[in-house]
Write a structure and sequence with these properties.
There is one protein chain. With 432 residues, this protein is of the alpha/beta class. The protein has one domain: FAD/NAD(P)-binding domain (3-Layer(bba) Sandwich). Helices cover 33% and strands 25% of the residues. It contains 11 helices and 17 strands. Strands 3, 4, 5, 6, 11, 12, 13, 14 and 15 form a 9-stranded mixed β-sheet that branches. Strands 1, 2, 7, 8, 9, 10, 16 and 17 form an 8-stranded mixed β-sheet that branches. Helix 2 packs parallel to helix 10. It is globular. The relative contact order is 0.20. Bound molecules: flavin-adenine dinucleotide (FAD). Flavin-adenine dinucleotide binds next to helix 2, strand 11, strand 15 and helix 10.
Length: 432
């Protein structure tokens, strides 16, 4: 089996300049706000807090954005991991609209940060979401609902238009989101870190927060040889540490997904520079990146170890949609871990003791982490209580190992449903 040419790194790491990085914390510091976690959630929060004039210390256990934030698909779009119909079923139509509006704030934050400071980080515009079976117009009806009720801009396309952009008979109708865009996520994360530092935040890498305790009117965060005393602590550690803050940590489960990047290719099947995804419960997502390479993501699993022959698996997935890609060499292949609450919605808020948390962004974290950073900052700096819109989705125990087993079983069930939908509803429209 063909192995990736670059085994242990990501294409993002190979195309970003990390520079010297940041030191570890080996002393005691005092500040207004201690942010734990150097992914997008922690970085946006640290940046916004520092911009509000508060003193900020950010602690990162590894390197800035080494985890999901620096290894994701790079798609930026409105909404959440949970689709709006299910969200409305969970919280009611009006509350769903309010939450969707907040998610748009996150998208706009990313757009503006990039436009103002490093426009080259944007790699393309638009997102096309395709259905892989003839669904009798259900996807078009969903798009119509999203436009009407949630004010989303969408072009609703029928099969022939879909296949003008993507030459495969696996796709039928599609929704095109012109305001979505895609970026280089690692370079974006490093930009956030640089901006946070310029605004006065102190950043520490290889500094794991081990314990958060009350100490008089402040919090004390211990981290190996260092200690931070802060008025506010904001925990943004995804599902990578579920013990540090049990209130939110016990409410999320770690879920892995995978990405591959091909060699530079001459191909004429993906004829769009927009991002692409399909509507399957555990579907593919991909885009053209530099030099004609294809970045292809997919598969969701609670088995966290990287599969052997990941490159081969991903090439197999590409070939199922575009047979001509079955021979493409995969230069990079990697996995990443996301945090999911059982209802697939982010967990944002303050626990009864007063510790802030932002986690559970699932596979839709580019906009929602930014939204969380904005909401928490406005709450701390200005007493704005919009973050309480998320109270209705407060953390609930995700079931520990039983939750993990249940979620894996539900993924298998979803795959079976996807297979059934495609198997029994394909038609004979030609690939155009
Ligand atoms: C392969 C993949 C593809 C994806 N594609 C997309 C996409 O296209 N679009 C999209 O919107 N979303 C996507 N996502 C989801 C998105 O990347 C995440 O939701 C988002 O990055 C989560 O950010 P975060 O800051 O919460 O977590 P992370 O990026 O995981 O960061 C958490 C950080 O906390 C640190 N940490 C943990 N414990 C401690 C501790 N005790 N002390 C100090 N630091 C600690 C970790 O080291 C880590 O750096 C994808 C995710 C993956 C894995």
């Amino acid at each position: 089996m063909q192995q990736p040419v670059h085994n242990s790194s990501t294409w993002y790491e190979a195309t970003a300049e990390r520079g010297e990085g940041w030191p570890s914390l080996v002393s005691a510091l005092q500040c207004d706000c201690c942010v734990v976690g150097g992914g997008f959630a922690g970085l946006t929060t640290a940046l916004e807090l520092a911009r509000s004039g508060l003193s900020v210390v950010l602690l990162e256990a590894g390197r800035i954005c080494w985890a999901a934030s620096g290894r994701n698909g790079g798609f930026v779009s409105n909404g959440f991991a949970l689709n709006v119909s299910s969200l409305a079923g969970l919280v009611g139509n009006e509350q769903a609209k309010a939450l969707y509006g907040l998610s748009q704030l996150g998208t706009e934050f990313v757009r503006e940060a990039i436009a103002a400071h490093e426009p080259a980080l944007k790699m393309g515009d638009g997102l096309r979401v395709c259905v892989r079976y003839s669904d009798g117009g259900k996807l078009r009806a969903y798009g119509d609902h999203l436009q009407r009720e949630f004010g989303e801009s969408i072009d609703i396309n029928e099969t022939l238009e879909t296949r003008r952009h993507l030459k495969t008979d696996r796709y039928f109708d599609s929704l095109y989101f012109p305001k979505a865009f895609h970026i280089h996520p690692l370079r974006y994360g490093l930009l956030l870190a640089r901006l946070a530092e310029e605004a006065g935040a102190k950043i520490f890498e290889y500094t794991r927060a081990e314990c958060i305790e009350r100490s008089g009117s402040a919090w004390s965060v211990s981290c190996g040889k260092g200690k931070v005393s802060a008025k506010h602590v904001i925990v943004c550690v995804s599902a990578l540490d579920r013990r540090l803050h049990r209130w939110s940590g016990s409410a999320v489960l770690p879920v892995a997904t995978h990405v591959a990047v091909t060699e530079p290719l001459k191909q004429d099947v993906i004829k769009t520079f927009s991002a692409v995804a399909d509507t399957r419960r555990a579907g593919d997502y991909y885009r053209l990146i530099a030099d004609g390479r294809i970045l292809w993501g997919g598969r969701i699993t609670t088995r966290l170890a990287e599969p052997r022959n990941l490159a081969g698996l991903m090439r197999g997935d590409m070939a199922k949609t575009f047979p001509m890609l079955g021979k493409a060499q995969v230069d990079y292949a990697w996995s990443g871990k996301m945090a999911y609450a059982l209802n697939k919605m982010p967990l944002i808020g303050k626990d009864p003791d007063g510790i802030w948390y932002a986690t559970g962004f699932g596979g839709h974290g580019l906009n929602t982490t930014a939204m969380a950073g904005l909401l928490i900052t406005r709450a701390i700096a200005e007493g704005d209580d919009r973050y309480r819109q998320f109270d209705v989705l407060a953390p609930r125990w995700a079931g520990g190992p039983f939750g993990q087993i249940g979620v894996q079983a539900s993924y298998w069930w979803m795959r079976a449903q996807d297979w059934r939908d495609e198997r029994f509803t394909r038609d004979n429209l030609p690939a155009s």
